[in-house]
C-alpha cells in the first residue's frame, strides 16, 4: 500500500503543471503542493525507476528511452494519465511529435513488466513500484477531489474474491478493484481548511 505521508510543500514540480495543463480537473493547482499523494510519488520515483531498470536487465528486456520516458512521466504526477495525456506531455518535452501508437506500445511493455497499472474506468495509467505477485488483487482508492490514486491490497479480500470467482467458474483477466471517493488527506483538508479555501 502506498502510504500517503509527508508534506508536499514546495515539492510540486513545473513538469506536473505542464502535464496537467489543459485538463478540466476540478481542483486548484495551488493545492497540489499540499497533496500528500504528490509528495509520496515524488519521493518514490527515483528508486522505482532504478528498480525498473534493474528488473529489465534481469529479465533480458530493455527499458528503451521512450519506455523510460513514459514511466518517468507517470512518476511525475500522482494522477492517472491517459495515452493522449502522455503523448502530449512527451511531445512538449521533446519538441517533436510523439504519436499515440508509440505511447501505446510503450504502455503495453510497462503493463507486461508490471511497472504500471491500467485504471479501466478511466482508461488511464498509474505507475506502480510494488512488483505484485501474479494474480494478486489490487484495490485502487481513487480520490475524486485531488485526483490522487492509492493502492491498497488485502489478502482477505483477495481470498474472498477468489472464492467468488471459482464459484462462478470465472477466469479473470485482471483482478483490479476501483473504489472512487475522497482520500483521508482531502477529508482532513475539507474539515480543517474550509475557511481558507473561500
Ligand atoms: Zn500496484
Ligand atoms: Zn484526495
Ligand atoms: Zn491527493
Describe the structure.
- There is one protein chain.
- With 198 residues, the chain is of the alpha+beta class.
- It has a single domain (14-192), classed as Winged helix-like DNA-binding domain superfamily/Winged helix DNA-binding domain (Arc Repressor Mutant, subunit A, Orthogonal Bundle), CATH 1.10.10.
- 45% of the residues lie in helices and 12% in strands.
- The chain contains 7 helices and 5 strands.
- Strands 4-3-5 form a 3-stranded mixed beta sheet, with no helix packed on it.
- Strand 3 and strand 4 (149-152) form a beta hairpin.
- Helix 2 runs antiparallel to helix 3, helix 3 (65-75) crosses helix 5 and helix 4 packs across helix 5.
- It is globular and about 50 Å long.
- The relative contact order is 0.14.
- Residues 1-32 have low confidence and may be disordered.
- Bound molecules: zinc ion (3 copies).
- One zinc ion is lined by residues 117, 128, 130, 132, 138, 151.
- One zinc ion (ZN) binds at residues 117, 128, 130, 132, 138, 151.
CATH fold name, please? Arc Repressor Mutant, subunit A
Give the class-level CATH name.
Mainly Alpha
CATH superfamily caption: Winged helix-like DNA-binding domain superfamily/Winged helix DNA-binding domain
Secondary-structure content class: alpha+beta
Global Rg: 17 Å
Output the strand order for the largest sheet.
4-3-5
- Give the fraction of residues assigned to helices: 40-55%
Overall strand count: 5
Ligand species: zinc ion
Distance between the termini: 33 Å
Cofactor: Mn(2+); Fe(2+); Zn(2+)
GO biological process, one term: regulation of secondary metabolite biosynthetic process
Binding site for Zn(2+): 143, 146, 183, 186
Protein name: Fur family zinc uptake transcriptional regulator
Amino acid at each position: 500500500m502506498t502510504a500517503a505521508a509527508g508534506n508536499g510543500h514546495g515539492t510540486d514540480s513545473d513538469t506536473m503543471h505542464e502535464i496537467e495543463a489543459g485538463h478540466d480537473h476540478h481542483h486548484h493547482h495551488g493545492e497540489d503542493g499540499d497533496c500528500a499523494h504528490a509528495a509520496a510519488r515524488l519521493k518514490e520515483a527515483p528508486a522505482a525507476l532504478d528498480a525498473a531498470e534493474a528488473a529489465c536487465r534481469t529479465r533480458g528486456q530493455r527499458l528503451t528511452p521512450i519506455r523510460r520516458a513514459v514511466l518517468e512521466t507517470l512518476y511525475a504526477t500522482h494522477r492517472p494519465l491517459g495515452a493522449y495525456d502522455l503523448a502530449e506531455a512527451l511531445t512538449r518535452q521533446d519538441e517533436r511529435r510523439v504519436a499515440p501508437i508509440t505511447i501505446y506500445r510503450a504502455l503495453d511493455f510497462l503493463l507486461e513488466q508490471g511497472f504500471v497499472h491500467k485504471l479501466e474506468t478511466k482508461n488511464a495509467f498509474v505507475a506502480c513500484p510494488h512488483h505484485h505477485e501474479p494474480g494478486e488483487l489490487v484495490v485502487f482508492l481513487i480520490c475524486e477531489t485531488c485526483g490522487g490514486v492509492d493502492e491498497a491490497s488485502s489478502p482477505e479480500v483477495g481470498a474472498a474474491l477468489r472464492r467468488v470467482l471459482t464459484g462462478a467458474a470465472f477466469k479473470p483477466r485482471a483482478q483490479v478493484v476501483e473504489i472512487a471517493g475522497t482520500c483521508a488527506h482531502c477529508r482532513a483538508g475539507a474539515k480543517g481548511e474550509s475557511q481558507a479555501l473561500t
